[in-house]
Fold these 2 entries.
Entry 1:
Amino acid sequence: MTSKQLKESTDYLISKGFEAPEIGVVLGTGLGRLVDDIENPIEAHYNHIPYFPLATVEFHSGKLIYGLLEGKKVVVMQGRFHFYEGYDLIDVTYPIRVMHMLGIKKLLISNAAGAINSNFKKGNMMLIEDHINLQGGSPLAFKNVGAFGDRFTDMSEPYDLDMRSKLETIAKNENITLQKGVYVSVVGPQLETKAEYRMLKMLGADAVGMSTVPEVIVANHLKLPIVAVSVLTDECDPDNLKPVNIEEIIEVAGKTEPKMIKLFRELIKII
Ligand code: HPA
């Protein structure tokens, strides 16, 4: 990744009309329908944007959408890149750097995750308060990282307190259950064994997933305030573990999607 490549990606999007977005949004598995509400949308498919990684997993539609939402200029990633698809972590987080270069001032992230905390139920949402990186690498581990920000990026409060508190208030007002906790990122794509779920619980995780953490690290590198919410799609109880399938995960995410959309729209309105 070079500044020149980032500039080319950004210039392409600006030439398509992606003019000074204020807010970036990353939509996770089964959560893509927020884009239906965008006014005057302009779309850019990932495989048309110079230097973007190519989208592979077919249930991710893979495009950037720009337009107005709640009166704000937004740029939305419908579908993201995962380490498990074979990209390196620099590729996975490339779009975050591009959205930052386009001018976003805040970033909202969603994902689908498994519930490790036994008080949390399938279909609940969880506000991420902190995370554990178990992907075995960093998107900041490259030679000229210093040209883009601090190499030794501070991670003492990686999730913006103000947006977190606003989301909690919105959830309360809307009568939406919003759990809070620690998200652990694993590589995947295989799901966890019973022994691994026991381990993750002991480590202090409340939810587990295969994304988000690299994006959050890069957002912190760029000093870009972020907030992230998981949809808990399955209950990971090692003493009563049923086989999960990805179709079911997508189905639960889809059923929860209207509540996620509500949270994000209300937040976008007031930030
Ligand atoms: N692990 C377990 N369950 C999940 C995951 C995961 O990574 N993502 C969604 N549900």
Entry 2:
Amino acid sequence: MKNKSLVSISDFSKEDILRILVEAEKFENNPNTRILEGKVIAMLFFEPSTRTRLSFETAVNRLGGRVIGISDAATSSSTKGETLNDTIKMVSGYADLIIMRHHIDGAARYASEVSAVPIINAGDGSNQHPTQTMLDLYSIKKTQATLENLQISLVGDLKYGRAVHSLVIAMSHFNPSFHFVSPPELQIPDSYKLLCNKQGISYKQYVEISEAINKADILYMTRVQRERFTDPVEYEKVKNTYVLKNAMLENSKQNLRILHPLPRVNEIDMDVDTNPKAYYFEQARNGVYVRQAIICSILGLL
Ligand code: CP
């Protein structure tokens, strides 16, 4: 992985994934070292973020590196008409690694083709969010003690949810059974169903959430991605389709853990937060260790 960009979760083999998870556990046990001393990491966030940007920054700071970047496209020269090509070429002359979030599907791939330094995709449109997936896998392994043969229920906006798309690809290495729960308008795109068919992975599609809760080892809730809708009326129709409440978990498996990439809007009621099966805040914290492992792996420091 040294000097290779991470644009899609498909850029990681099963062995790469497992190796990153082992390294992440070492960082969890010892998060403060000086392994990034002398390195400059650029954070280019052309789209809003709380967790991804701050956990990457925490990861770099805890390892002794320095961070430069933009957290708001409105304060960058893209507002003056500078192209992504020019921005990336220029920043790749300043930094050892670029971490980029962009609203356009494929922007990270494009950036990786024009950059002199590796790119980490921190989310491109509704396409992919590979580092979210790595922390999701870490969280699944930590709570289930395995990644193999799990029942995974994915709920909500499966059409535009980039975290869902990357997770389906990554989990396909581990023989899961998927339960896809969405309103008809927000079904998982056909390409992911084709992937499951090709890999012999079982999946079912549901509209009702109740059917998928009691079967699940992992219940992966997602927000309806308002910013991806071109018609606000369409968003209004589906925005409140699923609201998970504590009472709905009564007959769930003992080992069930509820994950969410966050931010949540209203799809998990706050009464779930104190349920021992709720794991989304720990999941977000795991992002620091996993991102430490990814950065160091790409920079050839592990
Ligand atoms: N999960 C995630 O990508 O959160 P942010 O949008 O806050 O970075």
